[in-house]
Specification:
Layout: H1 3-19, H2 26-29, E1 30-37, E2 45-46, H3 48-61, E3 66-73, E4 78-88, E5 102-114, E6 117-125, H4 127-138
Parallel strand pairs: 1-6
Antiparallel strand pairs: 1-2, 3-4, 4-5, 5-6
Length: about 140
Amino acid sequence: MSSDVNAAVVRRYVEGIWNQGLFDIAGDLIAPDHVRHDPLLENDIVGIDAVLNQVSALRTALPDLHFEALIYPGEDEFVTRRWTMTGTHRGEWMGFAPTGTKIVNTGMALSRFEVGKIAEEWIQRDDIGLLRQLEERQGVS
C-alpha cells in the first residue's frame, strides 16, 4: 500500500470512528488482531471490539469529542498523526465524576499497517496535563 493510501485510512479512522462514532466502518480500517499501546492504560487494547469499547467510553465521557489531526504519511507501513483532542467532561471517565470541564489535550500516534489496515498503534499524549485538567476541577491536588 502507498503511504498516501495508508494516510487516508488513518484520516477516515480519526474522522469516522473517533469523531463521528461510525463503528460500522471499523472492520474496513482496523485489523482484527489490532493492538493499541496506550501508556495511560494498564494493558494494551487488543482487537476491534476493544478499540471500539475505548472509543465508546471516551465519547460517553466527552459527548462533544473532537480530534483535530495532522497526518504525516511515513515510510513503508507507518503513518504518524499529531492531534489535539477537545471535549466537555460530562460523563465518568478514568475514575473522575463529570466535571463539566472543557478538556484540551495534545498527543501523537504512530500507526503500523498490515494489508491496508491499521494493525498496531502507539499512543503518546500529555497525560499529566490531561489529569491536571480533571483534578483541578474536582479539587484534587
